[in-house]
Design brief:
By secondary structure, this protein is of the alpha/beta class. The protein is 42% helix and 13% strand. The strands form five sheets. A four-stranded mixed sheet has the order 9-10-8-11. Helix 2 crosses helix 13 and helix 7 crosses helix 9.
Length: 445
């Protein structure tokens, strides 16, 4: 993803980030400061900020456009600053940032996730604290609970851009064609799946090569069967994944995969590949975060007819289960960090402050995403789908942060691998639970 050199001083890099990077790092050679003319300020007073993000034009047109607009505005207001952006999709970004962290060559400004994902970077002293920015123009700007997800031991190491929920999007036209109603119970949901499958329609688009996509399904199943508290405690190591409710949820998920609920070859396809199937009307349902909202509201590259035909529903309740329909999987999305060793750290922090403020102003109407900063809905005209999801956010009884973000890097990797194995029938629910317990016990969330 991003090639930046840091030789000012080397900080310790946690083993969790460095492990397993030998193959990935091949061809990613380190450079000295003298090899990189963009490092720090130039002799003419120009300051270059290298920014790395995961909003590619092809897959996130609205977000990409806003990032570029904000950069252009900042450069116009600060003619001595040049901002260079490098862009990758989600999985490429994750792989690249691991490499750059291991060799201590992070970009000046980049994106990160919260909680457990953040911890190794903070432990390696790779991210700069940004608490001072919360006392300036951004004071009282964030939705309650969002910045806290990026705080470790009292210091805030990134500023969130998004807040996400994960609904099940559905194609209204397909539902109408087969006289299907939005399901509120799991029994009704299974009836929808069977009806679609009987008529040769792919019920659910799933690209589980990326694994976190399947984790969304597991988390909801676990929430509805065992309850949000039990799932949260298991992820924290305060309860066991061998709890009967959590075992049952894993079993039910395997049964769902076994009844052809998902597209063929789902474990070998990426999320981007199957997302296109849903966008093209080749699958009836798609469980994904609200970062996808732009494709169904503002993205002009998606046919208006399809955008008009996309609705959403909440993951159904399960008979005898302890969860409720207003409990969601979601939480803060990506946030911006500033590299601790950046030679232009103060200018990078000023840019981050500017960026977050402008992102909150632009992202609602410009991209149709839910920002982490507060939205005055009275001042903007919003698509109905967006408004409906904002209303759901306001009445949510609980929001459980994505499992792979909660867990530390090693436990998250076990979780994701086990998710893929569970969907593919390569592991029993009992073994799935035992491997999770072992991983959480070894490293904690």
């Amino acid at each position: 993803m991003y090639n930046r050199t840091r030789v000012l001083h080397r900080t310790r890099v946690p083993l969790a980030l460095a492990a397993g990077l030998a193959l990935v790092a091949t061809g990613c050679a380190a450079h000295s400061d003298n090899d990189n003319p963009d490092l720090g300020g130039a002799s003419d007073g120009t300051v270059t900020i290298n920014m790395m993000h995961l909003y590619p034009q092809a897959g996130a047109a609205g977000q990409y456009r806003i990032v570029s607009k904000i950069i252009d505005e900042y450069q116009s207001e600060n003619p001595n600053v040049v901002i260079k952006q490098e862009v990758f999709d989600n999985e490429q970004y994750k792989a690249k940032i691991k490499v750059l962290s291991a060799i201590n060559e992070l970009p000046d400004v980049g994106m990160t996730w919260a909680a457990g994902y953040l911890q190794p970077f903070v432990g390696g002293e790779l991210f700069a604290p940004l608490d001072d920015l919360l006392q300036g123009d951004l004071k009282d700007s964030f939705v309650a609970g969002t910045t806290e997800a990026y705080a470790i031991e009292g210091k805030t190491y990134a500023l969130p851009l998004e807040f996400n929920l994960a609904p099940i999007y559905y194609n209204k036209q397909i539902f109408e064609q087969y006289d299907l109603q939005v399901p509120t119970t799991y029994a009704d949901f299974l009836n929808v799946v069977r009806t679609l499958e009987d008529h040769g329609v792919v019920p659910i688009a799933l690209g589980n090569k990326d694994r976190w996509t399947g984790s969304l399904w597991y988390m909801y199943m676990a929430d509805r069967v065992a309850g949000a508290e039990k799932l949260a405690n298991a992820l924290k190591g305060e309860a066991s994944f061998t709890d009967p409710g959590l075992i049952e949820s894993a079993k039910m998920l395997q049964e769902l995969a076994g009844m052809n609920a998902f597209n063929e070859g789902f474990n070998g396809l990426s999320n981007d590949e199957v997302k296109e199937q849903f966008i093209q009307g080749k699958a009836a349902m798609y469980l994904m975060g609200t970062w996808e909202l732009p494709n169904y509201t503002t993205n002009q590259k998606v046919a208006q007819q399809l955008r008009n035909n996309i609705g959403f529903f909440k993951f159904p309740t399960i008979a005898g289960g302890k969860g409720n329909i207003d409990s969601w999987v979601g939480g803060p999305g990506v946030g911006l960090f500033v590299a601790e060793n950046s030679p232009v750290k103060e200018e990078a922090k000023r840019f981050v402050e500017y960026f977050v403020k402008r992102w909150g102003e632009e992202s609602v109407t410009g991209a149709g995403v839910i920002p982490a900063t507060k939205v005055d809905t009275a001042k903007v005209r919003l698509p109905q789908l967006y408004t409906d999801l904002l209303n759901e956010l306001n009445k949510a009884t609980s929001i459980t942060l994505f499992a792979d973000v909660q867990l530390n890097s090693s436990a998250a990797e076990v979780h994701l691998n086990q998710i893929q194995a569970l969907f593919g029938g390569a592991v029993t629910p009992g073994r799935f639970a035992a491997e999770h317990d072992k991983a959480v016990k070894a490293g904690g969330p």
